[in-house]
Protein 1
Amino acid sequence: MITMSKNKTNILLYLLLKNASVFFISLFIICLLLALVPDTAIPGDVSYFERVKDYLTIAYLFSYDYSVAGTFLISELILHGSKLTFTLIFLSLLIVLTIALPAGILVASEKNTNFQKLFTVTVSLLSPIPILIWASLLMLLVFVFGNMVPLYIDFEDGDLRTRMFVLLIPVAAIVLGDGILLDFYNKIRDETRKVMNEPWLIAVKARGLPIYNHVLRALLLPIFITLSSKITYLISGIIIVEYIFAWQGLGFMIWRSLETPGAKDYPLILGSVKVLLFTVFLFSFIRDILTYKLNPQLMK
Amino acid sequence: MIIHLNFRFVLGCILLLILIGMNVVAFFFSSDIIKNGTPARPPSLYLFQKALYHQPIEEEAVEDLFSFSVPDEAEPHAEDLIFNRNPKRTATVGTEYRYVPTSQYLRNRASFWVEEGPRGMKYEDGAFIWTPDSTQTGIFDISLAAQMEDSETIRGIRFKLFSDEIPFYFGTDERGNSVLGLMIAGAKWSILPGLIAVLIAVFGGLFLGAYAGYNKNFLSNFIDGTTLVLESIPALLLFFLAAVIFSFNIYIVMVAVGLVLLPVNINIIRSTVKHFVDCQFVESSKEIGFTDNQILFRDIIWYNCKPIIISQIANCFAFAIMVEVTLSYLQFGIQVPEVSWGNILLQGKSDIHKGEFWLVFFPCLMIIMSLLSFYLTGSGLSRLLDPRKN
């Protein structure tokens, strides 16, 4: 459908509408499900549809209030949680790319070297282990050899070195777990191999020009496609990591609100979920725009 | 057909058989497998104990060297350690407990004795030995002392010794339950709930994906749109909601797992079917007069999609196990007093500061083993069944 349209504004509008509709439908599904959650604090005469209506109002009209749990504004809590969650997300992605990008390009450039075999086997063996297991084992290792349990409280109170260390443990669990590093590495390696054999790159080589800026540009789209496809997995992983290391991020707040028996903090849940879904929307939208921008064939 | 068995397939099958065996034991002997012993007993293997006791964590838990009296620095060997080997902390009734405190050189130049300990413990032939009888079970405070020939300083160590009737190779938890028994009992939540998720995800994905790939109409577009929406919601949120709505019923949560995995399977099968629809063998099958269903399910799915389906079954099983463990860990899955690997891991996490590492290490090992069993068997089997590779 993108290829058929030739008008840039129309394409942008189409992409925006497509991704926004996915975002709103996802939020709608969450509201429908949230209204099914049994809650003793809600009076018996409130019907399912009334609850759905209330949640839709909260979700779509931003009608947040104070948190049920405390005296904080929902927006303050979400802002604080977002800071922590996005710190973890972006730092993890940064480390994944810092490892996967040079390794993938290096492995694709050389054939059958020991480094290639060693790196591929190591990453393939370590990556299928889930984030939960990595986080637990890393916590255990830090306890046995470092004589500490790396929780968020140490991040708040510690000096710079402790803060960096406590931040790196959950990030390492996210990077290593659930095949995130493996997927990026495989994608970058395969795409680099593909690009290296393209006739236009051979022409660039023949002219004696530097090739790596061309390769990096060609890798931008595959990296972003992988990123947007992994972002939902990453968010699930972040929830687990935040719970294990007691980071008071969005995932932790959702977990705590849902886990509490009795009255649940629905505005907080909806606000947090909305931020996470919006992140997914943003990544998908940027991916679609990049697909269109970086691939001139789609313009034909 | 000559079956070329590869290493990963054989290893995967062995691990899978162990997992199935544990399931069978858990279902038929669930009440007998969890033995009871002394609470928080470390694993019997000294190697595992060494991992913890090389470094004390808290003042009250310090069980390394200390002096009964302050050493005089002028004395020879005043700063030397006599008890420079960590003692084993576990003993079993009827089996000799043996602790060699130091090297041969120091053993020859020092005298050793038991300051405080159970009846029958003595120093003999360079080692502290003790064979507990059936009445000597429980936790004993042990105090061992030593003095160098040319020194007046008495040195000693204090530690707790766990004595039980059976050797708990994986240790025990805070209530004295055998961790090995808990591991086996927890295995029952791996295969059966996973089966529900696999049935929905793989077989639902197979039929819907095949339909969407072979036909192009409103229904196939609707399937595309639904998968797009389902993929954009973080799966764990849906599992949380499913768990809370259905009162933590793991079987219903597994239905949700199946539904979440459905889009992935639909996409894979659809793209494969789309790839084969334009192939020559499909055209020739049409010419011969086969029906669409025959072409789709026999020629395309049965002959060409088997490896994909097998690997997807394995992946879905592994995913379902992981979801069960994660939800139990986050207190949304199997609820106490039922035993699940996730529950044990959670207990281990909360007790990690006490040094009970075996409650984290062994569940992690078991989960990795079960995931590997599915991944290896799945990938090995899909290679065997791939018509292009045979």
Note: The mean pLDDT of chain B is 82.
Protein 2
Amino acid sequence: MFADLALLAAQEETHEGSCHFETGDCGFPAPSADIFELDPYATFSLFGLEFHITKYVVLAAIGVVLIVGFFFLAFRVPRLVPSRLQSVGELGYLFVRDQISRQVIGKKGEYFVPFLVSLFFFVWVFNLFAVIPAGQFPVTSKLAFPAALSAMVWLIFNYVGIRNQGFVGYFKNMAFPPGVPKALYIILTPIELFSTLLVRPFTLAVRLFANMFAGHLLLTTFTVAAWYLFSSNPFGLIFSATSFILTVVLTAFEMFIQALQAFIFTLLTASYIGGALEAEH
Amino acid sequence: MTTPDGRPDQQPDSSNAAWSIVSYLLGGMAVWGGAGWLLDRWTGQEALFFPIGLIVGIAGALYIVYVRFGRP
């Protein structure tokens, strides 16, 4: 009987996921990519496509309502001497217009400032949901969201390029950089076309996704560690407190990264649009 | 922020140079590494044209970076 118990205990320790939190002497339940898989609240079918309403969709909808509501309320009755809400709204809008659009595109970019403002605030608020208590998932850690935004940006900068430089002209300027010996074009042109048309949107989406995914995984790891170490043994209390302090520090760092990633996404979008507006020299 | 005639202070080149370099390197390796890999499959070799393609891709990408960003 004792041999059976020993065998059972050995099996339980090696089998993934069968440890119990109460005993506290199993391995550390390290968070993996599984924590991003959520059950949908509701499922419905439309036109043969299945829609899952998960927490991400709900958080995205809340983000949309927040942003649209804020800007609507801020600029509903614009005055020359702004009210407090309007000042904050102006701060946000002017930040994107001056630091991103005018720096990178110049005057011709005024047309795109509303798009860039929307992009910046949407990405930032979606990122912020990682550290807001009820949400706790960065919406942009689901690849679909950055991929959709990146697809939009790709369509826009290609359309702008084609409209400004003509269809043939745009691709010729992209594929044939000037000042290169003609024979080298055979090697260089496929690289240029591939990297501008395919690699750019891919890196734009994956950069945002990977940063948010990794940040959330990091925060989850330290939070679980703080909890797990707390239930183990007296020495664990010190480690648990350290882990908790680290979680707080990493949350602050994560908030910085979220704002930075939103800024980089918008900056690169502006840069691609600016590059499409002017012919490469 | 903008010069008097409306052109941007920061030329687009300087702000997207870093990520463009990454893009070109990845693109070069993908295109010519892929071509080398397909050539390997076509000729039945184990791993002959694939590394050659990768190196050609990297060389080409670095040359493009020089042409677009490195020339004064």
Note: Chain B has a mean pLDDT of 79.
Protein 3
Amino acid sequence: MPRLRDELESQRGMMPEEVRLAYEAMVGELQRTGFIAQALQIGDRFPDLVLPNAEGDLVSIGGLLQSGPLVVTFFRGEWCPYCSVTLDALAAALPEFQAAGAALVAITPETGGRALLAKQNHQAGFEVLSDVDCGVGLSCGVVFRTPEPYRLLLEKFGTDLAERHGNTAWFLPVPATFVIDRTGVVRWRFVTVDFTERAEPAAILAALHALAASDD
Amino acid sequence: MELHQVRYFVALCRTLNFTRAAAECDVTQPALTRAIQRLEEEVGGPLLFRERNMTQLTPLGRAMVPHLQAMLTAAATARRIADEELGRQQTVLRVGLGPAIAAARVADVVGRLVRFCPELSVRFEEAGAPALVEEMLSDMLDCALLPDGPDLPDRLHRWKLWEEGCVVVLPGGHPLALRGSLTADELAGETLLVGERCGGFALKLTEANPRALTVRRCGGSWVQMQDLVAAGLGLALLPDALGIGAGLVSRPLTQPRLRRSVLLTLVAGRPQGLAVANFVKLCRARAFA
């Protein structure tokens, strides 16, 4: 399994200077306010929620859990190069997650058919759900309001969140990945306020193996 | 931000009173105050002016209310549709269809919604935009598909679902049917049917070319207008997204290129039933080709 960390590192190296400054300020502020503490914790129940999937059907977390444990990951959108390499890495790791008995769900605040585009562009054999207005992200405690300097830079580089989300709230999820057991309880999590860091597929797989071992 | 912080803030906006908001949310006042402070810290500024006898929203607070409210609604309506505790379980979805907007465009969305709400019944209503807006405001309709226009009231939330171009609809045996596409000049000497509920393209074209075209006014919907085309009363200009009746053909109008956007609209700030909330989510999530 190739290391996602290396891909992310190479993306970080290409970050324009002005973006890096806004990124450091944003991440620093989220760290200072203790954002991570509010995300779902190990032992919490993952809310049973219904969202539209990439194909335009409503999908429920409860329904997906009936076939086994679930890996749920939040991503900002395909405009984000870190999300993009992560989706590739997850698509590549999917067969191993499936061999461990689990399914994968990626959740994005993007609307307007962008979930389907992401799925197609990354040949993702997993569900990509559209968290319209970030209600599910809020329920999981992973959503924050993008500070203006960073948002203005996104616009400058051609990412219009208002158009992509269908609202002008500027909410985005932090990178967050949860492993949920069949009963809906969070058994492992990776949450960070730094959007250049992501859960390593090998670490997710290890968590799934540990979950399977504890269930035996 | 956390669900409870947003819930407390929205309750506080409603009551503008910490004691009453705390009672409404079933928490102590210090807990509510702490949660609001945390939220303020996160959004980067005070949401409320706290004066001795009065609590008021700051400009930032006012700007955040609709977004936080929408997020809270999205969270509530994402909970399982079958969840009984959500109370009023809406089983009727009432959708307005503006001029020359066919139910066919959203029928697939309704079909997918029905898989989750087997008890759902659907009512479509076709009318002009002002009538549909009025019905939404008086809670007779849940939402409406309307052409984008300057007259939509600010109270409506709106999302662009698709853009559509214009086609000339004519009988299959008409000489112009031999062409792959048509221009306004090529329509000179033809009679154009113009109706209030047919998408507005014909009106735009006749306003731009007042002399070249003969106009026949007709009421009724785009379906009835097609019947008149079939009967030889004239040609129709209709959105390219509509189905064309038997015996008729449609040709794109390439000069001028007329386009319009179709919006999904609903009244801002109104509590949404599960059916309409999930209908809106499904519509917003997908791309309409």
Note: Chain B has nine helices and twelve strands.
Protein 4
Amino acid sequence: MYRQPGSIQRPSRIPILRLAAVLILATMAACTPVKEYQKNRINDSEMGLSNRKVEKNELNFQSYREGSSGANGGKTGGGCGCN
Amino acid sequence: MKKICLTVVGLYLLLLHAFSQSTTGDTATYKPKKLKLDEVNLVSSYYTQTGDHSAIRGGIGSEKVTDLANGLEFKFIGFDAKQRKNTLTAGIGVDHHTAASQAWISKTGASRRTDGLRLYPSLDWTRENEKKGTSFSLGAYYSNEFNYHSLGLNIGITQKTHNNGEFGFKASAYFDQVKLILPSEFEPAGAYGVGNNGEERHPDYGSSSRQTYTGSFSFSQVINTRLQGTVLLDLVEQNGYLGLPFHRVYFTDGTDSIEKLPSNRFKLPLGLRLNYFLGDRFILRSYYRYYTDSWGLHSHTAGLEVPVKITPFFSISPFYRYYTQTAVKYFAPYEQHTKTDGHFTSNYSLSAFSSSFFGTGLRIAPPKGILGGLSTMEIRYGHYTQTTDLVSDIISLNLSFK
């Protein structure tokens, strides 16, 4: 099919979504039951799965100095990054 | 006698049963707790950068930038009559930056405005039902600077599973306005200058809009007593004016124009985070992301941070992050574009490059706090290099008061 120069070609979502599903299923299959009283290491403040507050401005500058962003639990839009 | 004994025992058991029933009034008498200030966070950063590929000059010239960012966040927690936890977080941020390249909005490098201020308040509310393992959240964000305004709204839900897992979904929308500040050669003669009273004179700027819509999916899981992970997937759609009006592009014949990019971009990042507690002192925090978008940019990001617990309340966290990306279809360096190109940019953040970011962090969080109300103190320094010759440093401080 002829495609006009400069037209937008959307990336196929299917392989990425499949990969996400496989990762989720693999993670679920690998897990063993963990009781509340066994979570002293999991609940350690440095085991958290979200970004630390002290990293906030690092993520900000990286999203402006690099062409990609997202999938890190942070902001996905808004802001200029003009400078 | 035997009958009497059995009757007494039976009555005793009945009495016990009756009393055990009468003590189950906890939920009926539960009193809601009003929102109360639980935590205050102060995050400050100083960022400095050098480079020689300024987008304002079409891919050449100084990219020297400094930025001082300060953010203050107040977190309030309360419980309603149904024992649901309500968290209200109000934040305010102020950044002050200087950028050498801004002087070159004027063709002669004579623009007087080389610094700027950005103000960004935010408000988030979360209602968590611990019995059902669900939460619901709403958030709003606003950012204002001289040439840019942004309003963001989001709504989110989470659901815990029976096996230490949690699914999350968040929908966000950002509505931005870009002031159309053009390079001086594209404005009428005499539009820029100094007025009779010494004030800066500039043309009446118009503005253009940009919208970003995001669906963020997450799944986190405790895998065993030492390992947990999360899978993050964002679907991002951007529409509107996606370039910046003062970014120049120089063509092969030496003439220039402003960057021209498509008015639509679809982004698809997929991230994976795994954290492992090794022995009693080491934690491995790993992150990987694959990213692709409709402009032809693909990237990989891999990061590892290793907090080492010197004591249970003091840790040192060295980290390293590697990043690599391909260029968008519309990028070419200074004087490499031809006028027949449909879209063009010489912004090096959209070029092909790789980068390294490394540094270390310190975290102190003694159980009795530091100097009274201060509960946690974190300091983090990072050094960043790109193969485009851009080099930057950032130092951040987080003070948490409880």
Note: Confidence is low (pLDDT under 50) at residues 13-27 of chain B.
